[in-house]
Amino acid sequence: MSSYKQASEDASGWQPRIVAFLCNWCSYAGADLAGVSRFEYPTNVRIIRVPCSGRVDPMFVLKSFERGADMVLVSGCHPGDCHYTTGNYHARRKLLALREMMSFLGIDPRRFKMSWVSAAEGSKWSAVIRQITDEARSLGPFESFPTFTLQEVKK
Amino acid sequence: MTTVTSLTRSLREAAAQALTSGEAAVVIGYELNDGEAAAPAFVRAPEDAERLIFDESCFGNLAVYLAKEEVRRLGKLAIVVKGCDLRAINVLLRENVVSRDDLLLIGVRCSGVGRPALRKCSFCEVRDPEGCDTVVGDPPEPPPTDPGKRYAEIEAIEELSMEERWAYWQKQLGKCIRCYACRQVCPLCYCKRCIVEKSTPQWVETSPHLRGNIAWNIARGLHLTGRCVSCGECERVCPMKIPLGSLGDKMAKLVDEWYGFRSGMSADEKAPFTAWSPDDPEPGIL
Amino acid sequence: MAEFKTYQVAAGWLESVAGALREAKVDVLVPCEEDGCVDLRSNQGLQALPQGYLNTVLPVKRVLMPASEVLLEYERQSSDITLASPQEPAPETVVIGCRPCDAAALEMLDAVFEWDYEDVPYAERRRRTTIVSFACTEAHPTCFCTSVGGSPHNSAGSDVLVYSKSDGGALMQVLTEKGAAFIGKLGPAAEPTDAGPPAPPDVPEKFDTKKIKAWLDENFESDFWVDVSLRCLGCGACSYVCPTCHCFDIVDESIWNRGQRRRNWDCCSFALFTKHASGHNPRPVQSARCRQRVMHKFKYFPERFGRVACVGCGRCVRTCGVGQGLVSILAAMDKK
Questions:
Q1: Torsional sign, CA B57, B61, B63, B66
Q2: Distance in angstroms (rounded) separating the CA atoms of residues A94 and A75
Q3: I need a labelling partner for B104 at 20 to 30 A (CA). Which of A44, B17, C102, C290 fits?
Q4: Residues 6 or more apart whose Cβ sits within 8 Å of residue B9
Q5: Is the pLDDT of residue A155 over 50?
Q6: Spatial distance between the Cα atoms of B114 and B59, rounded to a whole number of angstroms
Q7: pLDDT by residue (tens digit) across C269-324?
Q8: Does C317 touch chain B (CB under 8 A)?
Q9: How near does any CA of chain B get to the CA of C177, in Å?
């Protein structure tokens, strides 16, 4: 099994950038548990903590893609276990609607992932990140999405 | 010029009656404007009810005026409604934008508008509007197309590959000039402050480049999910002929298939984004 | 002062001149129909204008002032800031198939954009654009150029005015140096001629701008504005498709240390158009905004620049989602 101590690169040195919105009570705690337990997973993921997956507005996902994310993950408590009782149910309906709309427009729906990771599931968290990072690497840069780029001023 | 049919006469009588009796301060209906096709009319005096018409050029969804402050302050509103317009009013009722007691609904039995008839009319199930205070017109002919086929256009797009779909939408949404005619004509886009107008932060860029246009049309499509009644006005008013109706219809198909919901069929329904079930479908969630 | 001539060309001239221009790396914009929408596009193969061509959905102003244009870009690396003006010089452009009304509008836009300050992006594009207009052979019911001092054979703003013939040939009136250069691309195919243009089609007048100005001068507070604005939805469609409307918004779009400043079309009918940072809005209701649009076009602009800011193209009438447009408003005013 290859080491995940470093960010997952492809042959040219490009690395996928993954933005993940994690609910504070379950998924963020689960990710923390993964760290404490020393489970390894690629460091391509950038985590943004939110109180609940229901807080995530589809515009957060779109803005992430506009600014260069190759993949976006939203992770929350398992259905039935939301800290706020029903937040994740609303997240499920809203964000799957976003994914269906993306798909309808021809924007690759595989770039937007959702998961349920509980506070006890450190190993699931690291498995999820390993899986989606592998997929992001094989999908390549999200070139078809119109990102913010300058015309003239060179980086 | 439109010939005065018995429907038009009944409509004018109903309107004049509402104004004379004081049941309404203004009747929102259709009239000929400058000899051209029908335009929205705001009749306040009973003798002006003679201006009202109803014919195949009465496309507009007049429900859009029920949320406009300048119209509401005229007093109690009576409104001429086709079945499709009434669906929008049902959504406004369920969202508490208007109260049923403050409205007088004058229904019109409609066999389709447009010459040739608009696409939405060919499978319309609400040709005889229900729940109005008065209804005028003869029993309408049944729709020529099976209403079960209402998502046929969406299914055709879904047959395309991902690349073909993106090529299609990139071209269509690239045409958008951000005039917001689609938003302004939609009875359900009544937010006093639209997401586009929020600048801290700027969620939807206002520039009409592809990035901004994708954000705008996705935002509007999602904000109308479970609400859009497929009245087709957005597509009709778009100066660039973008098939905006498909976006609304796609989301209507989604909530129909996944949550068994059709917007605007009654004023008592619970919208999909305000409701949930523990057993909601969750394809692809890890 | 140069004498500009009139020329005669035979059928097929359109294809040959478009080919010659493209070889010279000139961008040729012609009306093309796609999905029910006729707009100016850089076209590869061109034989003739679309069947029954009335006008493009967007006016020719969009060649000189695009719906969104980058004014400058910046990037900051610690304390170093790089600024760049991103436009390569606008390509030499020829618009073939403009209508006389759209071309006449350019004279009004010139008055504004070259007024007290030269608008560099506009002026650059204006210098590099040649306007070849097609005189109208018939009037559409929504046309009203003659009501605002125009005509279907108006040469204002054009570099060449083309009178098409039924056999595919045309009579071409050269009006400027740029027009002469265009005719030069046709070579010997363009024969000088003394022939005059055909008679223009009749475009009935729908209102009298002098009467309107006089009424506007006295009726700022009239209830007329409330009545006429009730059905207005407050969208930007009429202004965006209008050849003379030119209001714009400047926005900054940025990410971390780099960004762009853009100029985008804006419309006085939008509720936010005059909203101040304090929250106060001097035009808080649609009646005030409808009034502003009409006043600007038919009172303020004439007072400042001596002409009405409308060319009678009829797009507002055709585009309005609620069947309004300027004609019905002005005709109602004319009756008062």
A1: negative
A2: 14
A3: C290
A4: none
A5: no
A6: 7
A7: 999 999 999 999 999 999 999 999 999 999 999 999 999 999 999 999 999 999 99
A8: yes
A9: 34
Structure token pair of residue B42: 């705001």
Nearest CB partner across the interface for C233, out of B184, B236, B240:
B184
SS (H, E, C) chain C: CCCCCEEEECCCHHHHHHHHHHHCCCEEEEEEEECCEEEEEECCCCCCCCCCCCCCCCCCHHHHCCCEEEEEEEEEECCEEEEECCCCCCCCEEEEEECHHHHHHHHHHHHHHCCCCCCHHHHHHHHHEEEEEECCCCCCCCCCHHHHCCCCCCCCCCCEEEEECCCCCEEEEECCHHHHHHHHCCHHHCEECCCCCCCCCCCCCCCCHHHHHHHHHHCCCCCHHHHHHCCCCCCCHHHHCCCCCCCEEEEEEEECCEEEEEEEECCCCCCCCCCCCCCCCCCCCHHHHHHHHHHHHHHHHHHHHCCCCCCCCCHHHHHCCCCCCHHHHHHHHHCC
- Position C49 scores a pLDDT of 76
Which residue(s) pair with C244 in the sheet?
none
Contact A153 C70 (CB under 8 A): no
Q: Tokens 């409609």 correspond to what residue?
A: B110
pLDDT class of C23 with cuts at 50, 70, 90: confident
Q: Name the pTM for this structure.
A: 0.94
Tokens of C176: 């400027």
Angle, alpha carbons B102-B103-B104 (nearest 5°): 135
Q: Is the minimum CB–CB distance between A143 and chain C shorter than 8 Å?
A: no
Which pair of tokens denotes residue C241? Answer: 């498709």
On whether any CB of chain B is under 8 Å from the CB of C286, the answer is yes
Contact B215 A66 (CB under 8 A): yes
Q: What average pLDDT does the structure give for chain A?
A: 92
Are the C-beta atoms of A49 and A24 separated by less than 8 Å? yes
Note whether A96 contacts B170, CB cutoff 8 Å: no
pLDDT of residue B1: 46
B248 touches chain A (CB under 8 A): no
CA angle B31, B36, B39 (to 5 degrees): 35
What is the CB neighbour count within 10 angstroms for residue C194?
7
Question: Are residues B272 and A148, on separate chains, in Cβ contact within 8 Å?
Answer: no
Phi, psi at C22, each rounded to 5°: -65, -35
**Residue C39: both structure tokens together:** 């707009």
pLDDT band at residue A10 using 50, 70 and 90 as cut-offs: low
Q: Convert the pLDDT of each residue in B152-203 to its tens digit.
A: 999 999 999 999 999 999 999 999 999 999 999 999 999 999 999 999 899 9
Closest-CA distance of chain B to residue C69, Å = 9
Amino acid in position B160: L
- If pLDDT is split at 50, 70 and 90, which confidence band does A47 have? very high
CA separation for the pair C29, B89 (Å, rounded): 45
- Position C12 confidence tier, pLDDT thresholds 50, 70, 90: confident
**Contact criterion met (CB < 8 Å) for B209 and A92:** no
Integer Cα distance of C160 and C186 in angstroms: 13
Q: Report residue B114 as tokens.
A: 């447009």
Give the separation between CA B145 and CA B152, rounded to whole angstroms. 11
Question: CATH: 3.10.450, 2.40.160, 1.10.3470, 3.40.50. Which one for A18-139?
Answer: 3.40.50
Residue in this structure with the two tokens 């709309």, named with its chain if needed: A101
Residue of B172, B202, B239 with shortest CB distance to C57: B239
In chain B, what are the domain boundaries? 6-136, 151-274
Measured distance CA(A15)–CA(C74) in Å, rounded: 26
Nearest chain C Cα to B239, which residue?
C319
Domain definitions of chain C by residue range: 6-192, 209-334
Residue of chain B minimizing CA distance to C240: B179
pLDDT tens, residue by residue, C177-216: 999 999 998 888 889 999 889 999 999 999 999 999 999 9
